[in-house]
Amino acid sequence: MKQQEGKKVLLYCRVSTDEQAKEGVSLDEQRTRLKAYCVAMGWKVEIEEIIDDGYSAKDIDRPGLKRLLSQVEKGTVSRVLVTKLDRLSRRLLDLLKLIDLFGQHEVSFVSTSESFDTETPSGRLTLQVLGAVAEFERERIRERVIDNMAHAAKSGKWLTQHPYGYRLVEKELVVHEREAIVVRRIYDMFLDQGMGYFAIAKQLNEEGISSRQGKEWSIRSVKLVLTNPVYKGTLVWNRTDSSKKKRKQKEEGEWIMLPGALPAIVSEEKWDKVQEKINDKPKVPSRAKTSPHLLGGLLKCGKCGASMTISWSGWPKRHRVYRCSAYKNKGTCESKPYRADEVEKWFVEGLKNLVDSVEHRVREVVISQVEEEKSQKKEQKLRAAKLRYERKVEAYTAGLIELSDLVEEKSRLDEELRKEQDSGSDIDEVVVNQVINELKEKCANFIDSIGVLPVPELKQRLLLIVDRVVLLGEKEIEISLVV
């Protein structure tokens, strides 16, 4: 075919970092072959070299390729030459998109090693076949890498960059004690002091404590520390599917989980309590956290249920009062205002009385919640076992595993079913007593802190134990605890 007049030929050469030392793919070798091909074809036109040095062909985000496509779209190119198909791309979808773009601008694509030209039907067919083979091989390489990584993960090897609080020594995590102290403190601040992500980050930044790589703490970095199972010594891998642009979490049955495979920084019990608080955190109004008054955002009117807000009363000596917002804003409630210092005094006295009788009053509630939590954990474990068995059935049907593997998985499922049937509804008294004792301890800590800590810090402790406060009348207060 005749070379289009006034248009040039682009010679595209590429090597990735791991290919630089391999024979036959060096940039000089590619240039030599492509120029020789042009001479053999008798093309006496302008020839331009475009180089991508050190770039993989897994995608088309390469500076040289972008420059090539820009020239194609401008209409100044007649042909694009490569020594081999995978120099342009290893993904069939990307290849077809590029070839389609070349076709739209009447640019032919030539691979000298595979001896085809996309201007011919046979060349286009060969291109698609070779592209499919190239993508298939790349996926096989990816599967082998994943299998090797899965084997390493099951052996307790750490496969990525070390998290805060650890260092990586010969692919194994070791505790970095200086940072581990900060991790334990973050868990205590969140669980025992009632501080949120923002408050924790602010406190650490004010103290000049840096996070990873000397950066400041943020809401996200604090949450990552509080939710990463590595800190309780559990290795979790293969949780997300990263093969596509948008990462998606996989089913739990596909996860690789190895409890006790790593050195722990916090106890498993404390880590689990943090997750429960994160997932089942009561919805506290924002004003309950930010109000400078002890019961601000918590106190409700006993007559209409509306929130009671702080106002000022008296002259010339003013004092704080809690007033029903429905009366204040709408005039629809007959509740009178109450002096704030008196209401807060009644609340503290009521809380002290409640602490003395907390075991008797909340025992039934605690038992109910322990039963519900136990049931949810059993259901979750059984669902994961059923999912694993279903995947083994699919694998056996496809001929990927032996019958013995399927039988072994069925035995594990039967064992889980048997455990569920055998486990009765007996309540673990140790767990119930532990929950009650922790609640009593938190109430006592709050009472001891009154008059010692400033109100903002006092409220953080208060929100750990109190869910709602209702002012029924003179010296009559109803207190709902967080159980």
From TrEMBL:
Spans through the membrane: none
Designated name of the protein: Recombinase family protein
Keyword match Coiled coil: yes
Keywords: Coiled coil, DNA integration, DNA recombination, DNA-binding
Sequence ranges assigned to domain Recombinase in this UniProt record: 163-285
Organism: Heliorestis acidaminivorans
Listed GO MF terms: DNA binding; DNA strand exchange activity
SUPFAM superfamilies: Resolvase-like
Domain Resolvase/invertase-type recombinase catalytic: start-end pairs: 8-156
BP GO terms, sorted: DNA integration
Active-site annotation: 16
Coiled coil region boundaries: 370-423
Pfam families: Recombinase, Resolvase, Zn_ribbon_recom
